[in-house]
Structures are given as C-alpha cells and as structure tokens.
Model the fold of this input.
Amino acid sequence: MRRWLRDPLIWTGIALVALVVFMPALKPVFALLFPDQDRPLFEQDSFINLTLSHIGLVAASSAISVLVGVSLALFVTRPSGREFRPLVETVVATGQTFPPVAVLAIAVPLIGFGAMPALIALALYGLLPVTEATVAAIEQVPAGAREAARGIGMTPAGRLRQIELPLAAPVILAGIRTSVIINIGTAAIASTVGAKTLGLPIIIGLSGFNTAYVVQGALVVGLLAVVTDLAFDRLGSMLDRWKRDDVVASA
Amino acid sequence: MLKNRVLLLLVAVGLAAAAGLAFVTHAPNRLLSGQAVSWAIVLGAGRWMALLPALPLVVGPFLPQSRAVHLVLAVSAAALAASLLWLAGDVAIRLADTATPSARTSFGGAFWLIEAMAALAAADALQRGISNPAARITIGAVLILPILAVIGGGAIDQLSIMKEYANRRSVFATAVATHLAIVGATLLPTLGIGLPLGVLLDRRARLRRPVFAVLNIIQTIPSIALFGLLIAPLAGLVAFAPLLGRIGISGIGATPAIIALTLYSLLPIVRSTTAGLEQVPGSVVDAATGMGMTPAQIFRRVEVPLALPVVVAGLRVTVVQAVGLTAVAALIGAGGLGAIIFQGLNGSAIDLVLLGVVPLVAIAITADIALKLAVTMLKMRSG
Done:
C-alpha cells in the first residue's frame, strides 16, 4: 500500500487524467489566478480532445519511427548492408543537429499545412535517435554470444531474434524513449503548422496575451511528457528484470 | 564491376528526383504555389554544361576505390552543388525579365533533394578517402566555398528567398544577432552553474541520483510548455518588484527564454563534467599525489586537461540544442530566427520560412562541426 502511494508514475498519471478531465471545473480557480482575463479557460476545444489528438499524433509518428528506424539499423548491421553504415551514421548525426522546429517548418512547403506535415516531420525526426540507439545496441552485443549461437547451429534469422534483439532491447528502448519525448514536445509546436495538439491553447494564449490558456496547455503537455518518461523508465526496469530472469532460467 | 553501392544509391535518388520533381517553380506572387519550370528551360542555350560535374558521380560507383577517386568525387559533388545553385539563380534572372515584379521563382523539391544527395556523396567520399578527421573537416570547409561564392556573388539574387532577404535586410541581421546573443547569454549561467555542479557531483556521489533526476525531468518538459510556464511567475515577480522591470526583466521576451534555455542546458553540461572527471584514471591521480602535488594542483593540471574533451563534447550538445530551442523562444517574443520562421508560417509565405530555417540549420551545423573539431583536437593533444 505504501509503495503504491509513493510511486511517482501512479500519482503523476492520476494527476494528468484528472487535470485533463476536470479542467472545466477549474475555471473558477483560473478566474481567481488571472483576474484580468475575460475568458480564464480555453474552451475552443476540450482538453480531452486535444490530449487524445496529441497522443494520436505522437503514437502514429513514433510507430513509423520505430518500424523504419529499427529496420534501417538492422540492415546496416548485417553483412549485406554494412557498406551503407557510414552514410546512415552521417545522416543520423547531421539530422539530429537540425532543430525540430526547422524540420517542422521545412515539411510545410513540401507537404502543406495540417496534421500530415506534422506526422511526417515527427516520424522523420524521431527516426534518428531510434536508428542511432539500435545500431549502438546491436554493436554492443558480445561477440561471444554471437559465436556461441553460431556454434550451436542457429540461422542468422534465429540469432537475430533470439540473441541479438533480446540483448539489445534495453538500449533500443532508451532510443525509443528519447524519440517519443522529443516528439511530444515537437507535436506541441506543430499546432503552429495547423495540427490539433495541446500546443493549441499555448499558441492561441501567446498570440492573444491570455496567460491562462498558456498555463493550461503547458501544464497538461508537461505532465504528459513526464508521465510518458516515467512509464518508459518503468518499462526499462521491467525489461532488465525479465532479461535477468531469462538469463538465470536458461543458465 | 560495381564498387560503391552507396554512391549508386545517392545517384539513383538524385536522378529520380530530377525526373519526378520540380527543380525550380515560378509563381505570379509570393503567396501562390508555383508551376514547375521544365529542365529544357533551365538547361537551355548550353547551360547543360553546368551539369558536367555530375559525370564523375554517375560513373563513380564503377571506378576503383582509391584515394584519388574519392577526392575527385568529393570535389565533383561540391562543384555540382554550387553549379545547381547557380543554375537555379540563373533561371530566376531570365524569368524575372519577362514577368511582373511580384513574380517569384523558388527552389523546387528536386533542387533540395539533389543538393542533399550531393552533400552526402561529398561527405561519404571524404570519409572513405581521408582518415584524419581534422583534415576531413578542413577539406569539407574548403569545398563549401564555391557555394558561398555563388550566393555572395549575387547569382541567386532573383530567387524568392533572396528577395525576402532583400526586403528584410535589417530585420534579418537583427534576428541573427538576437539569436546568437540569446545562445551566448545562455552559456554564461549554464557554465557558471553547470561546471561547479558537475565537479561537486564527481566528489559527492550521493548527490548524483537526486540532481540528475531533477535535471532529467526538466529535459523532459516540452520547450514551449516551459517557456509558457515561466511567463506568469515572472510577470508576477515584476509586478511585485517593479525595479526588476526597469532593468529589462519581464514575463515575455529574452528573460524567460534565457532562464528556460539554461535549465535545459544544465543536463548535458553537468553530465559531461561529471563523466569527464570520473573517467580520469585513479592511477594518474595517485601518481600526481606521489609527486607531491596539492589537490588544487591535481585538479588544475591533471583532472581538468583529461576531462576537457568530454566536457567540450557536452558543450556541443548544449550549444546545438540551445540554437534550436532559441527558435521556439520566438513564440514568447524573444525574437531571433524563429520570429522570421513563425511569421512566414502565419502568412503561408514559404520562402520567408526558408529565410529563417536555412540560417538556423547553418548555425546549428557550424556549431556542431566546430565543437566536434575542438573535441578531436583536444583528444589528440591529451593523447
């Protein structure tokens, strides 16, 4: 019971859901905090809608990033793709020096305004940390483990599935975590190119000098990022424990 | 037969882009989207000769892999990048003669993709041909000069992005200066707090967990949210102590930007300082103690020089991140290149967006390369 109460993931998660669902009930509080505002609560769209749309955009783009990023990394760490590895590493390193805002802004002239350029920009940008982490993760699989697997006659596909990927999983997960957290922040900025996300109250509040809107959007998206980060943290330690048990079981 | 599959892929993508996308587009005014200008017009009257540098790149995948070949390929790719830029500028000049003054010629998708492929081909050739990273960066910097010459010589002045620049010359200069000033102003408190904090965490391992937990949470919060959350408290503070307002502190503008950027910058600096000091071998410190050096001397003459490459690597992450985040700070009125980008996005003026994005990316990449070079040189010096 005590441990449950002290778990930051659980109470930040509850705080996030409560804030999103009961935001309208907080209107008097914001009216008190911002007495100069005629409209102390962002009501052009519900926070439930904005949050779901934000999560949807991040989930869709991250799914593409993970799928393409992991495949790309696996390709350049196979003998047949090794030649492309310096190229991929150059693209990944240079791409990450591009500010996320720049990637978002470049997507607009190519694709137009709306959710589509945001999705593509987020997916492309999110690809980079996933690819980088997966290449590093596969690279640090001990040569001994690979040799042993080859020695007992495992096929390359079997080695990948049963040896390399499980051993690389924690580092790959760390890359996915970085990617998702960056995407949550970039998705908020994506409301400047017409995507419906939690950045909308912030942008409207900033341009209309309504600090109450800004605070509402910022609180929800900030909490969303923190909860997601904590959830990845938990997932990581679960993976570690599972890997350890697995090694113990097979030993 | 086929010796370089990477170059073959880059050439194939470039050719596909040339076949399927517009090289430049032409529109009656800056807000309308343009019509593609055909290659026949772009390359007419002998201008196809500007594409000659592409020839070595097309046969490159089948040539033997020698140092000389790689150098030729790198130079050809750089020359192609410059001549494509010249071609785009040239077609804009010719179309400007016949059209109305409000007509605009802009870069098309094929231009950007082929330029990107040329840059990657040059980078890949340098990586294959030259093993010394410092020499590679130097040659790379020299290869960019023709592009700068094309821009500086006025050859692309009739392109839309340069017209946007001509209309906003002083705004642009102020934006670049503000941008760099905010990044610079962030580095002072970042280094002032981050370096001592990093040293402290190296000495007091117990403090690491809580401090890094806090810095991690800050790093997690989206930039736009942190900027926004600082507005209300700062405005309240100024209302409470008007003296602060008189020295230039306010809820919007540079103050919340610099505070938020400093908060973000602390994690990479503190982490790299602690990591840099941690990796100094204990035996080296012991030897220095044995020689009779005081702890202060050991810190200054042994630990700092050995930790420096790692600290500068952290500084690189910090600066590149700060350059990008400063663009977002334009949303809270801090100015800089982000102001130009968001103005362009609001007005659907694509070339105005590019006028902000291109220098923004150039600053980030320059800072990245310069600090990478510094790390390489520091590592070579400390062996």
User: Anything to note?
Assistant: The longest strand of chain B covers residues 24-27. Residues 169-203 of chain B form the longest helix (35 residues).
